[in-house]
Automatic annotation (TrEMBL):
Gene Ontology molecular function terms on file: ligase activity
Pfam family, one: Wzy_C
PANTHER family, A to Z: LIPOPOLYSACCHARIDE BIOSYNTHESIS PROTEIN PA4999-RELATED (PTHR37422:SF13), TEICHURONIC ACID BIOSYNTHESIS PROTEIN TUAE (PTHR37422)
Protein name: O-antigen ligase family protein
Length: 432
């Protein structure tokens, strides 16, 4: 429904939140302020749309409600046990409540907006791929709206890679599900995939795409001989490849920005060099604890793990990671890092073992919902939810997926697409 038709409809206030929500996936591929503005606009429209009884019913019936309540309860409890660091506690505490923003989106319910949101997500991925190609040709203007495509801006640039990986995997699923082999679908997928591999400069995103492809291939894993053989062969080939790469000479630099600006490397060269760097970084750290600026995550993980061992049950308190890490890593290359780049370690460090289990409980619930949806009328969206959840769980091993709002709100917007309209009642009905 177009905006003019929406306004002339007498029920336009009830329909406006869904219409706004359908366009939010498109905002994810630009400056983060655009995503936040879209979220604020959605929340305003949602607050003014009325029908609060139906909204509350949908939110209370969500299978994610109790796991999210559990995480919030643990965060409140831990906040009473440990001291509050000045200037850090409020922001850190709010990060553990991020999932609550999902429920207004879920209260919109199912509808045509979901498929429209998927199409807008694919459109955003196509635009992002085009901007990456324009930047590789040196013709993209250095303006704020597309700055993340011109310069490697840390978390925003990493998010762009993750979004391209998820979009490419969702495209494959749509292609398989609809059995619609139009040439333009295949070309769109290839167009996004090439941009992901050669232009996005994200190792995590490239690995994530391969993982999601594996999930699509083995979605009905049943321990058949060809499935076991394929996995064993893949692991064997990967082992040989890693062993070979470990013996190659070290690249001149492992920083993507230097490869592009100082050495004028092509996208293929940057991709291959970063793959070599990753293997060498793991090898060097395992042998002599040697790290570089590009590979400091290994040092981050080791130091954080050692600090977790000091208080594994109750953690160290919300917002205490930064100050404690700076003291722990004094004189080391990772001393100025602001997060451990791993949500599992962060939750365990600050909330203790209960916080880690609460996080796993939320993501485990999402996987359970996806598994149950396969047997119902929403089976098409089941794989979208499964791939997105696996993507969050995988990316959380290397980035602050929930700790940073740039990642967290983007993932919540995408989660609303397959989860809206799904509740405990419909899930029980499909499994009985």
């Amino acid at each position: 429904m177009s905006i003019p038709k929406l306004i002339t409809n007498p029920d336009w206030r009830q329909q406006l939140p869904a219409q706004i929500l359908s366009y939010l996936p498109l905002t994810l591929f630009f400056q983060v302020g655009l995503m936040y503005a879209g979220l604020v606009l959605f929340l305003l429209a949602w607050a003014l749309s009325g029908d609060w009884q139906a909204k509350l019913v949908r939110m209370r019936s969500s299978a994610l409600l109790w796991p999210v309540i559990g995480l919030s309860f643990i965060s409140v409890l831990i906040s009473f046990i440990h001291a509050h660091p000045a200037g850090e506690f409020a922001a850190a505490f709010s990060h553990y409540q991020t999932y609550w923003f999902l429920f207004p989106m879920l209260s919109v319910g199912s509808g045509a907006w979901q498929q429209k949101a998927v199409r807008n997500f694919f459109l955003g991925a196509m635009i992002a791929a085009s901007l990456f190609y324009l930047n590789s040709l040196g013709v993209l203007p250095d303006i704020k709206l597309v700055k993340s495509y011109v310069f490697y801006e840390g978390n925003k640039s990493i998010l762009l890679g993750l979004l391209l990986a998820i979009a490419a995997a969702w495209m494959l699923h749509e292609w398989r599900w609809r059995k619609n082999c139009h040439v333009w679908r295949a070309l769109s997928f290839v167009y996004v995939l090439i941009a992901l591999v050669l232009c996005a400069k994200s190792r995590t995103a490239s690995l994530l795409f391969l993982l999601l492809c594996g999930l699509l291939i083995f979605r009905n894993f049943s321990f058949r001989w060809w499935q076991l053989g394929a996995i064993a062969s893949s692991l064997f080939v990967a082992g040989l490849g890693i062993s070979y790469v470990a013996r190659l000479p070290a690249p001149v630099t492992c920083l993507a920005q230097e490869m592009h600006e100082d050495y004028q490397m092509s996208g293929v060269q940057i991709f291959l060099n970063r793959a070599i760097c990753t293997v060498h970084q793991v090898r060097d750290f395992g042998q002599n604890k040697q790290v570089t600026q590009d590979g400091m995550r290994l040092e981050l993980y080791m130091n954080t793990w050692q600090m977790i061992g000091q208080s594994p049950w109750l953690g160290h308190g919300i917002g205490n990671w930064l100050s404690m890490y700076q003291e722990k890593a004094e004189g080391q290359i990772s001393v100025n890092m602001t997060t451990p780049h791993n949500d599992y370690l962060l939750y365990w460090f600050e909330l203790g073992i209960a916080g880690l289990l609460a996080l796993l409980g939320i993501w485990g619930t999402q996987l359970r919902i996806a598994r149950q949806m396969i047997h119902g009328t929403q089976s098409e969206k089941a794989m979208l939810l499964a791939m997105l959840t696996v993507g969050m769980m995988f990316a959380a091993s290397f980035n602050a997926i929930l700790r940073d709002g740039v990642f967290a709100f983007a993932m919540l917007i995408l989660l609303a697409i397959p989860l809206a309209g799904v509740n405990e009642h419909t899930l029980r009905r499909t499994t009985n």
